[in-house]
Amino acid sequence: MIKVGIIGFGKMGKIRAEAVSVDGRGKVVGIYDENSDTLTDRYACYESAEKMISSPEFDALFICTPNFLNKSLTINALRSGKHVFCEKPPAFTAEEVEEIIQAERISGKKLMYGFNHRHHESIQRIKHLIDSREYGNLLWMRGRYGKSVDVSFYDDWRSKKAFAGGGILLDQGIHMLDLFLYLGGRFDDVHAFVSNLYWNMDIEDNVFAILRNNETGVVASLHSTMTQWRHLFSLEIFLEKGYVVLNGLKTSSGTYGDEILAIAKNRSTAPAATWEDEERIQYQTDISWSSEIEHFFSAIEKDSPVMIGNSNDALALMQTIDSIYAQK
After folding, report:
1. What is the pLDDT of residues 175-231, one digit of tens each?
2. What is the DSSP string of 172-201?
């Protein structure tokens, strides 16, 4: 039984605790949260994150805290001999991720990041189709991920750069960028516009980015926004012999609509593909939370590498984000 501690018992901490319980190979034996209102009689409550990190009670720690704490808590937990699962973003810059990787190597412990969208069934289906080359080589990708916020956002730590590290890109667009890297490999050229035209905070509310893999020629287009007055997730992938379009996403908030994957394999006759040619798959259940726990616990039990959401994935992602922010 893997003894688990959770640092930060807000929304994400509770989601992780439930997933650990459902998996059955681990047990949450302690939590810490600075807000006493979130504490519960179900688990032992620690008075500080530092005491949890130093305690011999835990094999693995889940870090579900505001962004600015992720780096230091991860490094300290690794140095204390704990396996670590940390929510995104891993840190504020790629240079900071390199510091984490150094601590990880010295510790010999497992480190995994909550790049949750990789674990959706629809994304796994897309990944398989691309890797199989059944539809030929990947040509281009377009991702739109947007939401609406209201004035209450000013009171959220996510609205303050010192705590969040950035705006909508680090909050939400990071997931779409991670999918681009997962599905399309690295990106060498990055061109972006980063703006703050509406909310007038010290973080961005829109990012438009174009990325290119110079080896394969694959281009990806990203729009990440918090001035889209309805929540939307859309990932379009076009290959030599067909296309895959994912609209909607099952999420904990339930605000992105039905998760529907459309697949069409036909481009030889104009029109290349009609609506009737599409295979449509609707995913009714979000298995991503359980899939992440399964992957993390298996790596611990088998002493095998973390393959999805590891520190090298985190470094490549933050290098891309650094390149976008450099063009403000």
Report:
1. 999 999 999 999 999 999 999 999 989 999 999 999 999 999 999 999 999 999 999
2. IIHHHHHHHHHHH----EEEEEEE-SSS-S
Which tokens is 74 given?
């991860």
Q: What angle do CA 31, 33, 34 make, to 5 degrees?
A: 150
Q: How many CB atoms within 10 Å of residue 233?
A: 23
CA 313, 315, 319, 324 dihedral sign is positive
Contact at 8 Å (CB) between 50 and 72?
Answer: no
Q: Dihedrals φ, ψ of 81, to 5°? A: 85, 25
Going from the C-alpha of 137 to that of each of 217, 269, 280, the distances in angstroms are 11, 19, 21
The candidate with the shortest Cα–Cα distance to 238, out of 308, 89, 94, 137, is: 137
Segment (H or E) for 98: helix 94-107
What's the Cα-to-Cα distance from 251 to each of 133, 234, 324, rounded to whole Å? 29, 14, 26
DSSP H or E run through 57: none
What backbone torsions phi and psi does residue 286 show, to the nearest 5 degrees?
Answer: -90, 105
- 149: phi then psi, degrees, rounded to nearest 5: -125, 165
CB 41 within 8 A of CB 30: no
CB contact at 8 A, 194 and 206: yes
Q: Report d(CA 102, CA 120) in Å as an integer.
A: 30
pTM for the full predicted model: 0.95
86 φ/ψ angles, rounded to the nearest 5 degrees: -125, 140
β pairing state of 189-195 and 83-86:
unpaired
